[in-house]
Specification:
Length: about 290
């Protein structure tokens, strides 16, 4: 599998992408008209650009290679504070995460509500609050999971470069942006059956800090993403490990000078929340879609 699967995936990606490029504009226009976005997940700001992925993973800890699907859809936003200086956005999200990993097989469908609240005051560095409540159905083990995440982030004044949430631009082209980053500090609550012991539901809370950085080495061509999270589990209510770091490094190539379909390579190391916080170290080659 290691010898033949990756070349096959690369060939398929190269063959499929040019055909898909022909219909990108129509797809983008339809999604924009209906205020729908497609990403890998919506665990941070709606302005993060993590593409949905269809990936082949090489497992560094065993010979068990596997395939993953990570797909999230955000639907039309609802603005609740239209006549004030503050902004409160609500939007429903549906996510599907599936893995054929024999050690940590996964097939979860979740539905949730995300909220983003931006304070009305004008600051050089403005704080804002994000909240997500998700109901997850584990299709493999036939049980339900609950997760709540609340986090504080910041967005800078656009006049000041290199503040969180401020777009860096190429000097010779005002259309193509060079990158941006977000920092987060938050709290999460989880209810997960069979997390450590069969027949037992683990209920635990954690504090976390997260940094997301997106950088375009070449405009509309080569994208680099760093996504790192450090979690600290609170109290002794769960037998789960108390420190849960996770790092994701991604390289994505977008053929044809566009920003919607790419071929990517991602290295992932740490404790993955989508895989019951199992310790992982993987490298993936993927076909990515982002609208």
């Amino acid at each position: 599998m290691k010898s033949y699967f990756i070349p096959i995936v690369v060939v398929l990606c190269v063959c499929i992408i040019p055909a898909d490029l022909l219909s990108q504009d129509d797809t983008k226009n339809w999604l924009e008209r209906n205020n729908i976005s497609i990403r890998k997940t919506f665990d941070g700001s709606v302005n993060e650009y993590k593409p949905a992925t269809f990936s082949f993973f090489e497992n560094h800890k065993s010979d068990n290679d596997f395939i993953n699907v990570d797909l999230a859809i955000k639907f039309s936003e609802i603005e609740l504070l239209e006549h004030t200086n503050s902004v409160l956005l609500l939007y429903p999200v549906i996510e599907w995460h599936k893995s054929s990993n024999e050690d940590n097989e996964n097939d979860k469908l979740s539905a949730g509500i995300n909220a983003e609240y931006y304070f009305g005051q004008s600051f050089t560095l403005k704080p804002y609050l994000l909240s997500n409540f998700a109901f997850k159905r584990n299709l493999l083990e036939d049980h339900n999971e609950l997760r709540y995440v609340g986090q504080l982030s910041f967005i800078g004044d656009p006049e000041y470069s290199y503040l969180p949430g401020v777009t860096w631009r190429f000097k010779n082209d005002e259309v193509d942006y060079k990158g941006l980053y977000f920092s987060y500090f938050g709290y999460e609550y989880n209810e997960v059956p069979d997390l450590v012991s069969q027949g037992k539901t683990e209920t635990f809370s954690a504090l976390f800090a997260r940094l997301f950085v997106e950088y375009w080495a070449l405009p509309q061509s080569i994208q680099l993403i760093f996504d790192g999270t450090y979690r600290g589990v609170l109290g002794d209510s769960s037998t789960i490990k108390k420190e849960l770091p996770l790092v994701n490094l991604s390289f994505n190539y977008y053929p044809g000078k566009q920003e919607h379909i790419s071929i990517g390579v991602t290295y992932r190391n740490g404790y993955a929340p989508d895989l019951k916080y199992a310790k992982i170290e993987t490298t993936a080659i993927s076909l990515n879609v982002k609208f």
